[in-house]
Design a protein that fits this description.
six-stranded antiparallel β-sheet; 18 strands; 4 helices; alpha+beta; Tetrahydropterin Synthase, Chain A; about 20% helix; globular; seven-stranded mixed β-sheet; about 280 residues
Length: about 280
């Protein structure tokens, strides 16, 4: 049996619902191994086709979606035409609700979102598009190894023309902050704790504030070119910004916040958006 591998084929940035953690942003690196007989070119599968075919399927199926485990306790999913409405009770008694076009949501079997469940789904999808000589496929999903503070965040960019407009997609991101050209790991840890499993929302997208069963909630709603998006979640799981939440504006927000505390120091914030990309702010 012949094998072909492609490491670091792509990164999938998405969000998922968890009964305990709530709405979680995640970034997984994708490695792929194909097994099979050699074709007339002496290949299992052409590397160019791997990037075009396999990466496209993986990105379309999971990337920038809200992944929802169907067997989560108390979960309700209602489909109305091309829309999905989701209500997800959490372990602390609060509730997260989400409304969007169907294409922004992925339902999977199980009680939790784990790499093995998403890998199995992708492997089934890919078997339908691979040539007959490819008899085995292994999709390995892994987190980036990070040697410092990081946080999981979810957001939506209503002005984006691509899939970033989806109101609940996210990232697992490292953060690096320098004061006077030296890393300040205490500041990094403080922001990582503050933004652990957080939704970073835009103030102008807030359409309701209310209290139910002694829990304060925030609702966000906006119209984008893919359709209408809505999200309601406990206020304690939200960090509000006055601007949109692009990574450039997130880096600027962090830089300004640090500068207010350390006004005499030069501040540099390197804010990542998932793996290997992000924005710099120097104050």
């Amino acid at each position: 049996m012949n094998h072909l591998f492609v490491d670091n084929l792509t990164v999938i940035d998405f969000a998922y619902l968890d009964h305990h953690r709530g709405l979680v942003g995640e970034s997984w690196i994708v490695d792929v191994v194909l097994a099979g007989e050699l074709d007339e070119q002496g290949m299992v599968f052409d590397f160019g086709s791997v990037k075009r075919t396999i990466k496209r399927v993986i990105d379309e199926r999971v990337d920038h979606r809200l992944v929802v485990p169907k067997d989560q306790p108390g979960l309700q999913v209602r489909e109305h035409g091309d829309r999905a409405e989701i209500e997800c009770p959490l372990a602390d008694g609060s509730v997260v609700t989400h409304g969007s076009p169907l294409e922004a949501v992925l339902l999977i079997r199980g009680h939790k979102v784990v790499p093995s469940a998403v890998s199995a789904l992708l492997q089934d999808e890919l078997r339908a598009v691979l040539p007959a000589n490819v008899t085995g496929i292994d999709v390995h999903l892994r987190e980036e190894e990070i040697d410092g503070p990081y946080y999981h965040y979810v957001h939506g960019l209503k002005k984006h023309l691509g899939n970033c407009q989806r109101i609940a997609h996210g990232h697992r991101s490292r953060i690096q902050i320098q004061r006077n050209h030296a890393r300040d790991q205490q500041l990094e840890r403080e922001w990582a704790r503050r933004w652990q499993d957080i939704y970073i929302g835009t103030e102008e997208d807030v359409t309701a504030r209310f209290v139910e069963d002694d829990i304060s909630y925030l609702s966000f709603t906006y119209e984008a070119n893919q359709g209408e998006f809505s999200l309601t979640l406990p206020a304690s799981r939200v960090y509000l910004m006055e601007t949109d939440t692009t990574v450039e504006l997130i880096a600027a927000h962090l830089g300004d916040a640090c500068k207010r505390t350390y006004g005499e120091d030069e501040i540099q914030v390197k804010a990542f958006e998932g793996v290997g990309k992000g924005a710099l702010a120097i104050r």
